[in-house]
Fold this protein.
Amino acid sequence: MGAYEDSHRRSLTDPEGFWLEAAGAISWTRPPTRALDDSAAPIYRWFPDGELNTSYNALDRHIEAGLGDRTALIYDSPVTGTTRSYTYTELRDEVAVFAGALRGLGVGVGDRVIVYLPMIPEAVITMLACARLGAVHSVVFGGFAPKELAARIDDATPKVIVAASCGIEPTRVVEYKPIIDTALELSAHQPEWTVVLQREQALGKLGERDLSWESAISGAIPADPVPVAATDPLYVLYTSGTTGKPKGVVRDNGGHAVALAWTMGAVYDIKPGDVWWTASDVGWVVGHSYIVYAPLLIGATTVLYEGKPVGTPDAGAFWRVISEHRVKALFTAPTALRAIKKVDPEARELSKYRLDGFKTLFLAGERLDPETYRWAHDKLGVPVVDHWWQTETGWPIVANPRGLEPLPVKPGSATVPLPGWDVQVLDGAGSRLPAGEEGSIAIKLPLPPGALPTLWGDDQRYIDNYLSRYDGYYLTGDSGYVDADGYVFVMGRTDDVINVAGHRLSTGSMEAVLAAHPAVAECAVIGVHDALKGQLPRGLVVLKAGTTISPEALQAELVAAVRRDIGPVAAFREVAVVDALPKTRSGKILRKTMRGIADGRDEPVPSTIEDAGVLDALRPILRHDS
Ligand code: COA
Ligand code: AMP
């Protein structure tokens, strides 16, 4: 390990030098003279005296460098039968006009805009338009229910919502407007306007405070980029925590731009002009960082794909996109490959396409199981590179730095801590564990640029949730170990966050929905293994005495309630009515023990268990694949 080790060491011993140097890749209206501001530790800020505009960095500066005709964005939408490309100049012009429209609706520096858009160019345009004005976007994934949208509206208190009339799923058109209207009935905060992009698959009914996209942009004066402080927020992205209330992860402008631009070369080996494709959704952090910001910040071409890996139209959908747009590297979640493998195990569809320009497959979002790794590696014949990160961190914590120094792949490992990340494995008392021993993965503060500085409007919640477990460390919520070569193996969550088809969900919020049913005395939701989605939530409920509802009717009501309150993305379909839940003698439900059993681990049964027979009765339910 040469270049990697040097870089990692320098980033930790001389963070000022390392990150100020990386900041040179960004255009500043006022270049930073300092990197780290630790004056309010444990809340850290990066580039405190820097000033920039993220939209300028993602668009205008490439045009000023003479690259305006380069393709910035390729929209490929098998679900609508559309492909459309935007040059940097075209994308900048649309962003400037929509920024002008938002300004006309009263949006300015620091105002929040909720974005409820599917995978269409207007999603990218809206995000960059907010960035252009110094406004703060908060994108909400389309698979969430009105109640979840309402929770985000109340927390972010947006001035405007920007939405489409519908999203398109393989089995149905999802009408967004009724979801927004219901969310606004549930939320205390009322935005001034909702801008609705009308899609022909389902037009939205516009009310008094609704404007069509067309009318919003008609006559809009294109807006120039507004310089903001590097520490000003660029966006808030809500993610699941251990309670029902989602956590608003804040991303700043300066640290984000510096870190993301750095990763494109060092981690992904993508250079200006290369074609890069992230098959995720703009509603997740992977979409924010690697569909929208990072590729545009460096002047690459990003592919925006509206569709699923299979059935759009067949299991060759991904290979077609790679071949047709000459994609150099693809980033997706392992579950997408499992979906392809399920219908085309021999990857016969691959033979229809030439993938000669394709160099690397990057995977993240959930654990990469060895079988999927081997299948992808054998069929594609390119390096298959796992990497590990989180909504909070904004960019990879552990990866194989392909551009800096490609390292040998060890299946099961996300490879090594990237520069900026001081990853340590700790035991319950906070002592560092030796190589090979599994414990809680923590990161020594400060976190590098681009990682969350805090939670939206709630420094204390940030400190309580992440910084209080171990003094001086950020708690990732994942467990794992580091081997003798410094390779990191991430084994799973230590809390009640689960990962379903690469989507992060809280079992706690599902339990809250189940517990609200009048027939349910107590309940638990555990993530059980699923061959396609990695994990699926499974509910265990104990009925109240004297309940007359049939188990089948109750199950149907509970499944419908989770879909209504959290959304289809929860993929909650299974509930078992059980006699009892395992508890300690003091009455605490043994969720951790059940999680361990469901993960297939040799989970020790606590000596404080009230009745081991109850746990034994549940083992088959927890171990049984979905
Ligand atoms: N808007 C509305 N509904 C949505 C949605 C959206 N944006 N995304 C998903 N849903 C719905 C689905 O239609 C499905 O509804 P159903 O219960 O009526 O069938 C439900 O939410 C569950 O979705 P999902 O878990 O994604 O299952 P799926 O069968 O639709 O697709 C995969 C499974 C594996 C093909 C898909 O999840 C995938 O491609 N994932 C990998 C890429 C990715 O997005 N990773 C995220 C982080 S990197
Ligand atoms: P999200 O915030 O949605 O990106 O989810 C982050 C969580 O997904 C992490 O805390 C991990 O539990 C899990 N995760 C992401 N990438 C990986 C990976 N490469 N290996 C194992 N788990 C992962």
